[in-house]
Design goal:
Number of helices: 13
Strand content: 15-25%
Radius of gyration: 31 Å
Distance between the termini: 15 Å
Bound molecules: adenosine-5'-triphosphate, magnesium ion
Largest sheet: 7 strands, mixed
Structural class: alpha/beta
Helix content: 25-40%
């Protein structure tokens, strides 16, 4: 379990950060520091967005919306080595799916490469930057440690003329990768290591997805992010707490460059979730090493994975808004599940499906006959109306809903017992048919025509209500059931994170029987299979061969976790 003092510490960070940001924006608007608020969501296109990014998306787009401002989408594409168009497309799709729209066209840090280069020359001319010939390892050695100050590089006192000449030659491609870098001349003795002459340009002889072969030098994050903010007129640059130590550098650059505006950076707590990983490096590894079936595998914490699993964006937004009062920055997935169930309980239509079918023959129902019975689509939403469900002589019920020798507490079907079939009739089991191996393969039952709709006119009660599907009309389907991807709350805490992958995170059932209306079901309409859980069609599903993913079971464990005092809300 999480260390409580850490958790409490994180609670303050979350509370302060979210309150602080909105209070700050409100104050800045009231004081006229800014006329309107401009934020940005700045993903690096080197992977798919995940549930952690959802927090940043809801904050950046949400603050802009709440205060009548705008939010830009900006791709932080300063590293040509790892970025791909596939990721750019996926990020745009995911942000829109979350229900947000950015202002104007998507922006890119690479849109500003010309200006950033000019600003680098500006720093050189002002004596605030120099070309360093030390290699990466030497730079690290000279940088010092948290307890020891750094040492000046022997190249630190080059003249602006010499620096300008070398920097232009770096740009012209005269030197190999890593031979020289441009560094800001700040303070090698600073207590903040980020201020010890950070590298701002490096040689990378790789074509860039957007600027092609134009550049062989690229700015570092710290020399691109705040500058892009300033160029876009961003007023409140919201990022995660690990950038807190970069803020003095962010401000230093803004103070030393001829920027058209003065953005300010504010930090908030990163979201972490137990039983999963949220680092892009680890998610990339899961995909590349085939531990999952792609970035949008329904077991992945990616937004595309959650979507494919049938989780609605409204539930994710609700989840993120509740994080403002969580006790820990490491959230249990049960809280997300709780938000999902709460949303789906209100909005998902109900249908019947049988996962492990057992045939039932109604002996007193005429052969060759069938009828349609009215079923309520969603008891929580009258507007969802009703539908007709076919009923006939042969049906399927769940194998688990029958026991030949039932214990006392088992209220479902058994020999000589009567139960209700949902929306249909009471049936009584008269006989059990077995194969040569002794397996139960069929139940012979009778129904009471007077109980149509599910109530007996004589007032007689039954203890169990079962879901069922008409054998003649059933649609065959494949069902994927998912569990946590990892068996450990903190994967990788004791060793390699892949060692705690859950071998049973995916179970596939074939030969499941669905009510006919589920045959051609929209992928974005998660549906409740009565008594079983929430499901939605997989991307691979077709009316000819339906495949459903289990979004989640019906049982909410969140309240229980809270009651035990292990929760975080
Ligand atoms: P990683 O460290 O795994 O590579 P990242 O932070 O570099 O992730 P980006 O694509 O740069 O990923 O993130 C875009 C925005 O989303 C940033 O502002 C970042 O702070 C925010 N973000 C990323 N991960 C989380 C998280 N777990 N919780 C909250 N915000 C996050
Ligand atoms: Mg990043």
């Amino acid at each position: 379990m999480t260390n409580m003092s850490d958790a409490e510490h994180a609670e303050d960070a979350v509370k302060e950060a979210s309150d602080f940001i909105r209070d700050r924006v409100r104050d800045d608007l009231a004081a006229g520091v800014t006329k309107s608020v401009v934020t940005r969501f700045p993903p690096e296109p080197n992977g798919y967005l995940h549930i952690g990014h959802a927090k940043s998306i809801c904050l950046n787009f949400g603050v802009a919306q709440e205060f009548g401002g705008v939010c830009n989408l900006r791709f932080d594409d300063t590293n040509p080595a790892k970025e791909e168009q596939e990721f750019i497309d996926a990020i745009e799709e995911d942000v829109r799916w979350m229900g947000f729209e950015w202002d104007g066209a998507p922006r890119h840090a690479s849109d500003y490469f010309d200006t950033l280069y000019e600003w680098a020359e500006h720093l050189i001319n002002e004596g605030h930057a120099y070309v360093d010939d030390l290699n990466a390892e030497e730079i690290r050695e000279y940088r010092g440690t948290l307890t020891e100050p750094g040492k000046n590089s022997p190249y630190r006192d080059r003249t602006p003329e010499e620096n300008l000449d070398l920097f232009r030659r770096m740009k012209a491609g005269e030197f190999e990768d890593g031979a020289r870098v441009l560094r800001a001349k700040v303070d090698m003795a600073s207590g903040n290591i980020n201020m010890r002459d950070p590298v701002i340009y490096r040689i990378v002889k790789k074509p860039h997805p957007r600027t092609g072969d134009t550049w062989c030098i690229y700015p570092n994050y710290d020399f691109a992010h705040g500058q892009s903010d300033a160029l876009e007129g961003v007023t409140h640059s919201l990022c995660t707490l690990e950038f807190e130590d970069h803020r003095p550098l962010y401000d230093w650059f803004i103070a030393h460059l001829p920027t058209p505006s003065v953005p300010r950076q504010y930090e908030f707590a990163r979201l972490n979730m137990t039983y999963t990983v949220l680092s892009k490096r680890r998610l990339t590894q899961l995909v590349e090493d085939g531990h999952v079936n792609g970035w949008d595998d329904p077991r992945m914490p990616t937004l595309s994975g959650l979507r494919r699993r049938g989780i609605p964006p409204e539930a994710i937004r609700d989840f993120v808004s509740r994080l403002g009062v969580t006790k820990s920055d490491s959230v249990e997935p049960a809280l997300l599940d709780h938000c999902v169930r709460e949303h789906l309980n209100k909005h998902a239509e109900r249908r019947m499906a049988v996962l492990k079918p057992l045939k039932v023959v109604i002996e007193n129902y005429p052969e060759g006959q069938s009828e349609e019975l009215e079923a309520v689509n969603n008891p929580e939403d009258e507007g969802a109306g009703t539908r007709m469900v076919p009923f006939g002589r042969e049906l399927y019920i769940e194998q688990d809903d029958f026991m030949e020798d039932p214990p006392k507490k088992f209220f479902r079907l058994g020999p000589g017992r009567e139960v209700r079939l949902r929306w249909a009739y009471f049936i009584t089991c008269n006989d059990v048919v077995k194969d040569d191996a002794g397996n139960i393969i069929e139940l012979r039952c009778t129904y009471d025509p007077a109980t149509k709709g599910g109530d007996a006119p004589d007032g007689r009660k039954v203890k169990g209500t079962l879901h069922w599907v008409s054998a003649e009309h059933a649609v065959d389907a494949v069902l994927h059931q998912y569990d946590h991807l990892f068996t450990e709350p903190n994967p990788g805490k004791n060793g390699d994170f892949v060692d705690s992958l859950n071998p049973d995170s995916l179970t596939t059932l074939t030969g499941c029987k669905l009510e006919p209306s589920l045959g051609a079901w929209d992928a974005d309409r998660t549906v409740q299979f009565e008594r079983l859980g929430y499901f939605c069609p997989d991307l691979s599903s077709s009316p000819e061969s339906p495949v459903f993913n289990r979004t989640m079971t019906l049982r909410d464990t969140w309240a229980k976790i809270q009651a035990k005092g292990r929760g975080n809300a």
